[in-house]
From TrEMBL:
GO BP of this protein: phosphorelay signal transduction system
Catalytic reaction annotation: ATP + protein L-histidine = ADP + protein N-phospho-L-histidine
The entry's keywords: ATP-binding, Kinase, Membrane, Nucleotide-binding, Phosphoprotein, Transferase, Transmembrane, Transmembrane helix, Two-component regulatory system
EC annotation from Swiss-Prot or TrEMBL: 2.7.13.3
InterPro entries: HATPase_C_sf (IPR036890), HATPase_dom (IPR003594), His_kinase_dom (IPR005467), Sig_transdc_His_kin-like_C (IPR004358)
Protein name: histidine kinase
Length: 461
C-alpha cells in the first residue's frame, strides 16, 4: 500500500509543477490522488509501519500515528468520490461557472453526514453501506461524464488526448469503487480492497507511457533534445508579437481611412471626411484595448469575461471592414441564425474575428469577391464560420497555419501571427478553431464554443 502513497504524491507533484495554476481540473485530480494516497498511507501505518516501530521499541510516537491512521482513512474514503466527480465536471466543462461553484458546495453535504455515522474510537469504523449510497452515484456519474466528454469531442487531437485521460483514470477509480466501496459495503471485513494497488499500478504505467509517447493531462516528455531556449523565447516574445500583429492590422485601416479623408477634404465633402476620421479613432481604440490586455511579455492570455450578444459583436466587426470591402468590390453576406449571449472576453473575441475577416479580404483576388459569415447552433454549443472565395491555402501549408510566425503570405510585413493568436484566444475560451481550405477555391475558418459558455436562456436556433 505504501507505494500507492509514494506514486500518488509523485503524480501530484508532477501535475502541480508542470501545469498552470489556473488549471482547475488538475487541482481536483491532485485532490483525488492525495486522498487515495493518504488512504494507502493509513493502511500502511497499521499493517507495516506501527508494528515495525513497535518491534524496534519506538513507542512514544505510536499513539500519534494511530490517530493519523484514523483520520487519514476517513478523509480518504469521503474525499475520493467527491474529488473524482468535481474533476469530471470541471474537466468536461459541461456546466457554467456559477453552477459549478454551487455544486462544489452542495456535493460536500454527504461528506458532512459521514462524520455523524462514523465511529472514530477506539478504531475507525466507517459505515460503508451509508457511504455507498452517495459514493456510487458520484463514481458512476463521473465515469459517464468522462466517457461522454471524449466521445462527443469533435477535434481529433483533443479527442485522442481525452481518450488517454479516460483510459488512465476511469478503470482505476472504478477499481477503487468496486473493491474498496462495494465489497466493503457487503462485508466490512473483506480483504478484497487489497486488489486496489493493481489498478493504480496499471494507471501509473499507462500514464508514464502516454506522457512519453503522446502526452496526457497536459504533460508530454520529449525524448529528443528539449528546445528549452526556443520555448522560452517564444513565451517572452509572444505578447509583443501579438501586439505588433494587432498594430499592423489597425495601421492598415488608419492609412486607408486617412486616404479617404484626404480625398473627401479635397472634394469638400466634410461629412465623409468626418466619418473616415471617426473610423480612424475606432481603429486607434482597438490598439489601445489590446495594449491594455498585454500585461507583460511573458504572460499568458488572461480573459476579462463579460456577457456579450454574439450577433451584435459579429455585426460590429463586419461594419468596421465594410468600407474596405466596398473599395475592393468584395461582398459580405451574413447568416446569423442564433440569438446567443456568450460569456467571453469581448476584446479578444472581436480581435479574433477581425483577424479572420482581414485574412479573408487579403486572400481574395478575384473581381467578384465574396465573404460569408455564419452563426449557428451545433450539437455541443455554437459555431461561427467565415468563408471566402479567395486563393485558398496549399495542402502542404495547412499543417503549419497555426504556428507562430508562419504565414502563407510571402510578404515581409506579415508576421504570421493571425491564426496563432486566434488559436490561443479561442482555446482560452475553451473553444476550438478549425480551418478548411482548397487552393483556388477558398477557405473556411470555423470557431466553436461549448455550451458551458452560452447563456442557456439565449440559445435559440
Amino acid at each position: 500500500m505504501l507505494f500507492i502513497f509514494v506514486f500518488n504524491l509523485l503524480f501530484s507533484i508532477i501535475l502541480f509543477v508542470s501545469q498552470p495554476k489556473e488549471n482547475e481540473a488538475n487541482r481536483w485530480m491532485i485532490a483525488f490522488a492525495m486522498s487515495a494516497g493518504i488512504g494507502a498511507l493509513s493502511e500502511s501505518l497499521v499493517s507495516d509501519i506501527i508494528p515495525t516501530l513497535q518491534k524496534m521499541g519506538i513507542i512514544f510516537i505510536l499513539p500519534f500515528l494511530f490517530q493519523v491512521h484514523i483520520y487519514f482513512q476517513f478523509l480518504s474514503e469521503v474525499i475520493s468520490p467527491y474529488a473524482i466527480l468535481m474533476y469530471s465536471i470541471v474537466y468536461s466543462k459541461i456546466v457554467m461557472v456559477e453552477i459549478k461553484r454551487k455544486l462544489s458546495y452542495i456535493l460536500t453535504i454527504p461528506m458532512v453526514v459521514m462524520v455523524f455515522v462514523t465511529d472514530f474510537y477506539p478504531d475507525i469504523a466507517i459505515n460503508f453501506k451509508v457511504l455507498l449510497v452517495w459514493a456510487a452515484p458520484y463514481f458512476l456519474i463521473a465515469s459517464y461524464i468522462m466517457f461522454y466528454t471524449f466521445r462527443s469531442e469533435i477535434n481529433r487531437y483533443q479527442k485522442q488526448n481525452k481518450f488517454r485521460v479516460f483510459i488512465v483514470l476511469v478503470p482505476a477509480w472504478l477499481g477503487v469503487f468496486l473493491f474498496n466501496y462495494v465489497f466493503r459495503a457487503v462485508n466490512p471485513y473483506t480483504e478484497l480492497f487489497r486488489f486496489v494497488p493493481t489498478f493504480f499500478f496499471i494507471a501509473y504505467m499507462l500514464f508514464v507511457v502516454y506522457i512519453f509517447l503522446h502526452g496526457a493531462f497536459g504533460i508530454k516528455v520529449k525524448i529528443e533534445q528539449q528546445h528549452i531556449l526556443d520555448k522560452s523565447m517564444k513565451i517572452m516574445s509572444g505578447g509583443t508579437a501579438i501586439l505588433n500583429h494587432t498594430i499592423k492590422n489597425e495601421v492598415s485601416k488608419i492609412k486607408f481611412f486617412f486616404n479617404i479623408a484626404k480625398d473627401s477634404i479635397e472634394k469638400k465633402d466634410l461629412n465623409e471626411a468626418k466619418n473616415s476620421i471617426e473610423s480612424v479613432f475606432s481603429a486607434i481604440e482597438g490598439i489601445d484595448n489590446m495594449v491594455d490586455r498585454i500585461r507583460s511579455k511573458t504572460e499568458e492570455i488572461v480573459l476579462k469575461e463579460t456577457s456579450v450578444k454574439l450577433e451584435e459583436l459579429i455585426r460590429d466587426c463586419i461594419d468596421k471592414i465594410h468600407p474596405i470591402c466596398n473599395s475592393k468590390g468584395i461582398e459580405i453576406k451574413t447568416q446569423l441564425k442564433s440569438d446567443v449571449t456568450l460569456h467571453c472576453d469581448n476584446v479578444l473575441l472581436a480581435e479574433t474575428i477581425n483577424n479572420i475577416l482581414n485574412n479573408a479580404i487579403e486572400a481574395i483576388i478575384v473581381p467578384k469577391g465574396q465573404i460569408l459569415v455564419q452563426l449557428f447552433k451545433i450539437k455541443n454549443g455554437i459555431s461561427i464560420e467565415v468563408s471566402d472565395n479567395g486563393i485558398g491555402i496549399p495542402k502542404q501549408e495547412m499543417k503549419r497555419i497555426m504556428e507562430p510566425f508562419f504565414s502563407t503570405k510571402k510578404n515581409i510585413k506579415n508576421h504570421g501571427l493571425g491564426l496563432s493568436f486566434c488559436y490561443k484566444a479561442i482555446r482560452a475560451h475553451d473553444g476550438e478553431i478549425l480551418v478548411h481550405s482548397k487552393k483556388g477555391k477558398g477557405t473556411s475558418v470555423i470557431i466553436q464554443f461549448p455550451k458551458s459558455r452560452i447563456n442557456p436562456t439565449k440559445l435559440n436556433a
